[in-house]
Amino acid sequence: MMMRLRGRMVWLEVLLLLGLTAGLVPAEEWEKVLIPARSDLPLANPITTTEIPPPPLSLLKDRPVNPAYAPGLPGLPQGKVSLDDFGNKKPKYDGVIIRQSRVQDGQVMIPAGGLVYLEDTWRGEVALVGERIAYLGKEPIYIDYDMSIVVQRNVTIPSGESVAVGGQVYHYYATVGHEKTANHTLHVRTIAGTDWEWAFGHPVLATGQPNWWGGSAHFAQLYNQGKAREVGPKQLVFDWISGVRTDRMLMANTQVFAGWAKPGQTWSVGTRTVRLNSVNEKAGTAEIQIRENERALYTKTVGPVQPERLIEDNGARKALLFEHDTIAGFLVPWPTAFQDGQAQLKIYGDVFSLRYGADYVQDPRFVTYPIGCPTGHNFGVMWTNKEAMTIPVGGRVMGPENYFAVVVNQAQGKEVRSWYLEDL
Predict the structure, then answer these.
(1) Is the peptide bond before 311 cis (omega within 30 degrees of 0)?
(2) What is the pLDDT of residue 12?
(3) List of residues 6+ apart from 269 with CB closer than 8 A
(4) What CA–CA distance (Å, rounded) separates 226 from 247?
(5) How confident is the model at residue 56 (pLDDT cuts 50, 70, 90)?
């Protein structure tokens, strides 16, 4: 059984940069192999060859063929508009997904990863703009993120099958032939199921068409990239393939300050004090210090602003960010970071993180998976059950933080005859 509500999506202008790349290379050489967003810029995110397991049931073979679909979840937010500090409006959606459930011994069994709560979004979620992320009845502020470009070597995708790379799922979808030309098509999806075809198109690999996708064996959807060495109707074999993964979202429950600040100005955050030590407007920098009981706990110089690399570039963002324990903030780059000897700052308290593949602190029955977009934004968050769940007839299981319940009224044979989601 399955109930799922996906947010709609709008077209994002994206840049596809194609080029020839090398084959197998040492790990430290990947920076020379992957294609940056612009030839005069570095790669936006660090590269890793270390995988973190994706959510269970992420591959296409594990997904329902004919899923049940409900056009609304009464009581759960649908199209709830969240604002950022610049007045941009982004609708947010609550989604609930149930996968691979079955009736066994008169009870409904949901496997690990089979119950999903999805914070879904219409448009990418953007760092450094004060965007609020609506989930589980809350609206914390999204500050920043950590993203990796995950690279796997020697990847084989048999026809009709899929593999997960980082937070992306590559699916060898179809081969279409005409005379001597055969088009081998990949679909690239997120772990939550969003198909990037709406934004990037889909890679088409063909040995007889050198002008397609930068030389037929290469493709690049920003930082979802790959180089194939074998292209045929039975399988695609890649020397390497990459996919982005959002490793962490940095969030806050409280905004302490937003505005222009003078050197020496302080703000109390719990038992600690944030101080703007100095401003160097000429250098484009400011020094931030966090103190407790007259003892300096943390000091960082933030800036300068690198406007041509924001917002997607990791190094450019981290240059503006300060973070210590449950306090964080940043030098605001827009419209300008400095004026009249003052620095524009945002400071937050009660800071926390949602991490890829980590227990959800508020309810460790569930694991969180931020959903990465190849452009360098975030595209929602998944919560999945860590252990299998059992629902007796007349019983229920609770979603994350008891936000909703899955209730089973009647089961007969191998079928669930009556069930519902309850908003709590």
Answers:
(1) yes
(2) 30
(3) 256, 326, 327, 347, 349
(4) 21
(5) very high
Q: What is the 3-state secondary structure (H, E, C) of 218-261?
A: EEEECCEEEEEEEECCCEEEEEEEEEEEEEEEEEEEEEEEEEEE
Residue 199 host element (H or E): helix 197-200
Choose between 353 and 221: higher pLDDT: 353
Question: Average model confidence (pLDDT) for the chain?
Answer: 88
Exposed, middle or buried by CB within 10 Å (0-12, 13-18, 19+), for 198? exposed
Instruction: Give dist(CA 189, CA 173) in Å, integer.
Output: 12
- Give the Cα separation of 152 and 357 in Å (integer): 18
Q: Is the pLDDT of residue 75 over 80?
A: no
pTM recorded for the entire structure: 0.90
Phi, psi of 12 (to 5 degrees): -110, 135
Residue range 30-36: average pLDDT?
87
Peptide bond preceding 335 in cis form (omega within 30 of 0): yes
Which of the pair, 179 or 45, is modelled with greater confidence?
Answer: 45
C-alpha dihedral, 274 to 248 to 144 to 362, nearest 10°:
-60
Cα 120 versus chain centre, distance: 11
Residue 284 — left, alpha, or beta (φ > 0 → left; ψ -120 to 50 → alpha)?
left
DSSP string, 93-134: EEEEEE-S-EEETTEEEE-TT-EEEEEEESS-B-TTTTEE--
Tokens read off for 113: 């990863």
Query: Which class for 6: exposed (0-12), middle (13-18), buried (19 or more C-beta within 10 A)?
Result: middle
Report whether pLDDT(20) > 60. Answer: no
